[in-house]
């Protein structure tokens, strides 16, 4: 899409883009380039020169078991929390779309979680899922030692997945509901007249029409699970116990800022960037093909 | 609504699942609020009583002073407002430039901006921190690499060393968060739908681009501004990693990062009542924004992402 009528003084026109360009050069392109450069050199913390080491940083990271552990943890986290958040949101949106009494109230309330900062909800869930107080303590009384995210890696992973999914159910719900509501009512009513049941209608009509939304949310949820998880991890588990929840973004932070290993952190950033880019492209290429666009 | 069939069993099931969803959605808020009203002993009771206790205001006050939430909330407001305003203004300017002018490299600029949507701040956090420590370092590097610093030193005897630190400043908090293209595409979509007749009329009246932008385009895009402003305010308010890093000095820390101070220590009876009171205070402002601006927020969310 292009404008037919434009302004002829294009030199002035460029000036309008200058603030944005300066900002993204200084705070986006330069740091991104710097990350690439750092990943190929050995950086001394607090200045003091650097040595070109080629791919050594990548070699040492990739031969480190802790790093592979953090990749696995990130993938487990991304897979389960995205799956949960999308499935629950899809069910809730499909049901609210049925417009029974009370649907409006659900619609309003189900959006709230999205407005909450990840660390705040992490704090809430840290309490709710604490082993010694709150509700899991009740379970622990019945079945001693059943739940302890402070000691058990699986429990810790489950905790951060619950917190993250809870927030993204709200986010996904908004998009699913919008997608359902964009489907012409007459289409569904016509199918109902033809005698097809609710479930049948969902699979034959509604589901194919919302696949673009599913695809879009899949990309967003997975990308967010790689970065928005930071606050949740920092408040709830700090990467522990025994690195069980040391997700990639958290490891970049702890290696770079606590361990002052700038080169290692930069190399990890590059790998994470590539991972996000590859995932995005992969999803575009392979999933989009099966998606029905109107 | 107009469905003719009767599906009592399915309707019952729908209500049941939605009710469960509703409870799950609201439960954390309720639990936080109730825990915030208990005294130290009651909040650690197993099971915790779901009847509100009487210490709500005491806990709120303790959390408020322990985490020094007054100034921190103010910082959060300044940051969130700065980011929202910055995004709204800069996105509008950029979209105006790429929609209303034809110049060489326009497509290139479009892509330069588009790419910024791919890589979040979190993954380039280490070098971005270095840039903010001296925001002029990229420009110094350019001068050094091109030999300009050397030339200037030869000619004038002045050694060029550009340096401007933005750690522990509002500018440092806000600027890197503005440096992505969210919003630019929202405006672009909208500007493309503005009828050409308006531009023609403005040009006929002898109005220049700036006039047209201020008098015609901006008033028309009020809805977009409200939507984008709301969503960016929430996004910035909820930022955590960035403010955590660059506000080493307490005077610029935000409410969200200060929450960490309230995590109960290991050993002793955990002060969950205070922690939950603080959590409640920190989660309330964005929640109020969501409730008040729900319409804009939802519309903006759907428009910016698509």
Oligomer: heterodimer
Main β-sheet of chain A, in a few words?
A: 2 strands, antiparallel
The whole-number mean of residue pLDDT values of chain A reads 86
The shape of chain B, in one word, is flat
Q: Strand pairing plus helix content of chain B: what structural class?
A: mainly alpha
In short:
The complex is a heterodimer of chains A (294) and B (306). Chain A has 294 residues and is mainly α.
Spell out the blueprint of helices and strands:
The complex is a heterodimer of chains A (294) and B (306).
Chain A lengths: L9 H30 L1 E3 L6 E3 L3 H7 L2 H32 L6 H7 L8 H11 L7 H7 L10 H29 L3 H9 L4 H30 L1 H8 L11 H11 L3 H26 L7
Antiparallel strand pairs in A: 1-2
Helix pairs in contact in A: 1-12, 2-12, 3-7, 3-9, 5-7, 5-10, 7-9, 7-10, 8-9, 9-12, 11-12
Chain B lengths: L7 H28 L4 H4 L12 H11 L2 H32 L5 H10 L9 H9 L3 H10 L1 H9 L13 H9 L5 H10 L2 H9 L4 H12 L1 H16 L3 H6 L8 H4 L13 H21 L1 H12 L1
